[in-house]
Structure formats: structure tokens, C-alpha cells
Amino acid sequence: MNAHDTEIELLKAGVSCAALLERLPPVWGLDRVQSTRRSLKYRRGDGEIVIVNHDGHGWWDPLSDRKGDIFTLVQHLDPGLSFGEARRLLRGFVGIAPAFPEALHTRRTASRVPVAERWERHSPLSCGSPAWRYLAGQRGLPEGILMAARRTDAVREGPRSSAWFAHRDGGGLLTGIEMRGADYRNFSAGGTKTLFRLPGGPGPLPRFIVCESAIEGSPHDLYKTAR
């Protein structure tokens, strides 16, 4: 390996994608609510999103197919940079630690709150809310299904237009919360995955459909699942 290749590997190992986003103007802000230590969501401007993963050594854009390492990230942020210019810029970021550990301290404290208590802190699904519009508009869920989910307290309002889906055991006890939004998915820290259950109508049920997640509810989704 020559000196050129050695420096490239040192920069890949020594520069954090999170630190670059936090310090390279115009800077990005960490979305603390929708971030974990393994998946850091950064936002900038109107709808720009970058997810940092692999302990700061990788990234991806959930709104496109763009992803990669620190070199592809710096050229994603400034497409006019050549590889050599990117290399020179990254030299100034070696060893700089990102600020997210302190920023996520509050979130870690919140994650210790019992799942049932976190559920009760959020409002039931309501007609016309951001979560309702996401489920009915983008996901194509019929109004009758959403009303049934509201009556049985199966779905609640989450942050940033997301919806929270209750996972319950056979006795109806809340075990965890599945969280889905247009550009976000997560599961409650400290919770246990069981099943999202939506009761059917009166009388015997002619069939049941097992879906990959609670959000799979449009006629197209159900057709794909039932085939």
C-alpha cells in the first residue's frame, strides 16, 4: 500500500461522518427524537436528511439511493469537490469527536420510562391529524380501518407526523411500540415485539392476513401479502 492509499484509509478511520455534518457549513442538526447511537438522523434545510451508521463510518440518504463512506459524504455535501480536494478538506476533521453522545443523554433517560407510560403521554389517533393524513394519504389506509384502530387504542400520534402502533400480548398487555413515519421507523427502547393486533368485525372471520408490519395496510400491500 502506497502513501496515498494509506492516507485514504487513515481518513476513513479517523473522520466521523457525524462530526463532518455537525461542523461543515451549512451545518446539520441532530434529530434527537428519531436517533439512536447506531442510527443518527441529521436534518438540514427543508426536508434534507442524512442517516449516519456504522459507528460514524457510514451514511445514507433515506430520500434517495445515495450512501457510502466519509469521502462520498463530503462530495455529497459539496458535489463540486474533486477527490483530491475532499481529501485535503477531511484532514482538518481527523480525531474530532461528534457532539451526539451528549445530545442523546436526554433521550437515553427518556427511554427508561416504562413503555405503557410513554404510550399514555401521546394522544390517540384523531381524524385530520398529521399522523392520520400520513396513514390515509401516503399509506392508503381506509378511514374505517383508522377509526377501528382509534376505538381499540391500537394507534397513537407520534412526533413528526409518525404513528405509534401498539404491540400487545395475548392478554392485551402493551409490550412495545412500533413507530412508523414517512422517513422514519423504530421500535420503543426497552419494549418487546409481539404482535400489532387489530380486531375484526362481528361474526366469524373468513381469513386472516399476516403482514410484515402494522403499516402494511393499503389494498396493494394486502394483495402482495395475501398472494
Secondary-structure map with pairings?
Layout: H1 3-14, H2 17-23, E1 29-30, E2 40-44, E3 48-53, E4 58-60, E5 67-68, H3 70-77, H4 83-90, H5 100-103, H6 105-111, H7 115-120, H8 130-138, H9 143-151, E6 155-157, E7 163-168, E8 174-181, E9 184-187, H10 219-226
Antiparallel strand pairs: 1-2, 2-3, 3-4, 4-5, 6-7, 7-8, 8-9
Helix pairs in contact: 3-4
The gist of it:
With 227 residues, the protein is an alpha+beta fold. 34% of the residues lie in helices and 17% in strands.
- Calculate Rg over CA atoms: 21 Å
Count of structural domains: 2
Please give the order of strands in the largest beta sheet: 1-2-3-4-5
Q: Fraction of residues in helices? A: 25-40%
- Give the ordered list of helices and strands: HHEEEEEHHHHHHHEEEEH
- Detail the poorly predicted runs: 218-227
Total DSSP E strands: 9
| Terminus-to-terminus distance | 53 Å
Proportion of beta-strand residues: 15-25%
Largest sheet: 5 strands, antiparallel
What is the count of helical runs? 10
Structural class estimated from helices and strands: alpha+beta
**Which outline best applies?**
elongated
Mean pLDDT: 84
